[in-house]
Specification:
Number of strands: 20
Helix content: 25-40%
Strand content: 15-25%
Shape: globular
Number of helices: 13
Amino acid sequence: MNISPPYSPELQNHLTGKHLLAIEIPFSQELLTEHLKNGYVSETCGVQTWNGSFLCMRCGNKDQTLFYTFPCKICDQVCTYCRSCIMMGRVSECAKLYRWTGPGIQFKIPDIVMRWEGTLSEGQQNASDRVVEAVNEKGELLVWAVCGAGKTEILFPAIEAALHAGKRICLATPRTDVVLELSPRLKKAFPAIEVTTLYAGSADRHGFSPLTVSTTHQLFRFIEAFDVIIVDEVDAFPYSIDDSLQYAVNKSKKVSASTIYLTATPSKRMQRQYRSGKLKAVIIPARYHRQPIPVPEMKWSGNWQKLFLQKKIPSRINGWVSERLKRNIPFLLFFPSIEVMEQVIPLFQMLSPELTIVHSRHPDRKEKVMALRHGLVPGLLTTTILERGITIERLEVAVIGAEHEVFSDSALVQIAGRVGRSFANPAGTITFFHYGKSKAMVEAVHHIQMMNKDAMKRGLLL
């Protein structure tokens, strides 16, 4: 009889689909060596040379300026490490990356996996059917859906089908905020399924489950793990401009994996691929409540930068904020930079001392958003950090200095998409305060009008 040597189920569970350094593997070196010898684990040098150039096997970095050569105390030689993914732990020429190559893990999936009892609109149902088809046929699909279309709910039938087929699924997104919003929704919809939630510092970092919600950064630690990968907010920074994050997504999926891209604002390149037939897509031009998307108003506010330096709020902006405070309407004021926002917060606190700021360096931004959602503060001053992944009843929005280069057309569309997201309050105002219209402002308004027109033409609006 050909009896295979025994293996550790715990090590199998920890390493399956992963690409990890030894320091990320909480097992003895003896156990790891034994599994290497028996062919259950393989190893590869983290940084290798290819045609005379360095290549990082974890993040795919080929930029030679992002490698550093130093006298290494571990291998006692001159060694090179990758600076591109250093935040995940140092990968060097002498550091090994380990992966499981032994028997796979079979999940026990109950007969009933989904407990979501909602209904889909006509536009959602059409898109959902296309996603299920892409999952079954191991295809690639772009879901181009307006902000507030209910993209997450569109995915539920496809996730259900994939789970019943024994497939492992990952829903990845560039931002931690979105991961934190999506994870509880998936756990509620699929209560019988273990959901692993991955972001910097998360407790689930070494979890293994049939359904994973992750930031794209965390996918550096995976290799050929997922049968279905869904990239939400595919156009969002930094994923849209970072080749290494796109490499991480591709490395984390199996060769035959289905790939689903979700966005309200696909890049120009993706739009060209769709129109040329290279990328299949389904478009949802209407929100789930079947009301048109509020179209932004453009309002000239004078030289807002000069007025702020003079410790004055431009009169039109002052009036806009005062009106929302008077009517008790929650609002977001988007600013082009943290510096401008911190400079003017004392001026706005003269209108209401409860107003506060939120930006990427704020550790408690989640709590501040919750305070706005529950009516504990009247409004927030923010940067583009809140352009996505936030839904608040009755919310209205203004952009200060909308002509600034930081506000791309896609950013402005996403910002506008924060308004009118619910059945109860499908309207609301979005105002672009400016000192001269930009091309991005005009294109953002045109994009929203085009989607509304298409939705009307297709009979998707009430």
